[in-house]
Amino acid sequence: MSTYQLIYQSQATVPFEAPELRALQRQAVASNRSHGITGVLLHTADGRFLQLLEGDEAAVRQLYCRHIVPDPRHRDCHILAAGPCPEPSFTGWHMALRFAQPSEVRDLLAHVPACNLALCVPRARTAPELAAALRAFFAAGQSGIFALQLA
Asked: Which helix (H) or strand (E) segment is 74 a member of?
């Protein structure tokens, strides 16, 4: 069975402070564990969410379409990348949470600079590039990650 990844961003409609985010994380960990989904969630002080979900395609799509998109606590869900990936990026993390600066999320989503004359304009990151950037971002901030492992 191949792993399916979905990366999206959205904007909070209500304020999320640390207690609300941790409650959201606890709820996500319990649900994701039962459905074999792993991933990470970034949240910024200006209310932006960036999330990577991975697992069985049907489970990830169902979570996104039936639970995440209709959630009134955020709006403007926009899929940045979705599709199969060679291997999971966040095995064992049913939902890691990290607070990020808005500039850090902008950097993660920044276009890749043109690398040769054939590609004259910057391009958006591919799904594997964005997943790798998120892995590097979480690895660099290990002390700021809240990875709940509920029994």
From this structure: strand 74-85
